[in-house]
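USER: For my understanding, would you kindly supply a protein sequence with its structure tokens?

ASSISTANT:
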Amino acid sequence: FETSPRSTTTMAAGGDVKLFAKWQYDDIEVNDISLEDYIAVKGKYSVYLPHTAGRYQKKRFRKAQCPITERLACALMRKGRNNGKKLKAVRIVQSTLEIIHLLTDQNPIQVVVQAILQSGPREDSTRVGSAGVVRRQAVDMSPFRRVNMALYLLCTGAREAAFRNVKTISECLADEIINAARGSSNSYAVKKKDEIERVARANR
């Protein structure tokens, strides 16, 4: 699977790039103006596979350029036994998107984007103080960290649901993403987000 940078840009300009040769990028909308720059899903970020082998850790904020489906795949490679198994993670993402489409009849990329918008906390609390006297202080969360946190919470929720369970990780991740996109409290990510924001509100 080899594409030169030139060929990818022409394809992206043509608008016929489809994720896994199935899902269109054209009609994807990011409805939150603050997160538009940090969810890479349109234009030159349209990819066929969530595996670009880019060097996104070389520089601060470089990973904001990483396609959002690839960031989801990378977030799944957690807990030592899964480190580095990216092809496994890509296959999980592929079957997750299939399940989401079957359950919702929508473009699954749009559902993933919606889930990220819903499950990133907007406020958090930090530890302030030195020499033993530590108190929590509420702080606003940057848009970039909201996206990072949302991905982390979605994958953690799916991982915990699939552990010692007959359901596969793909099914659990699909359930988690659909519930989060609806803002339902059945979603681990939405529950955690509400909890983080509630603690922050108490520490203002």
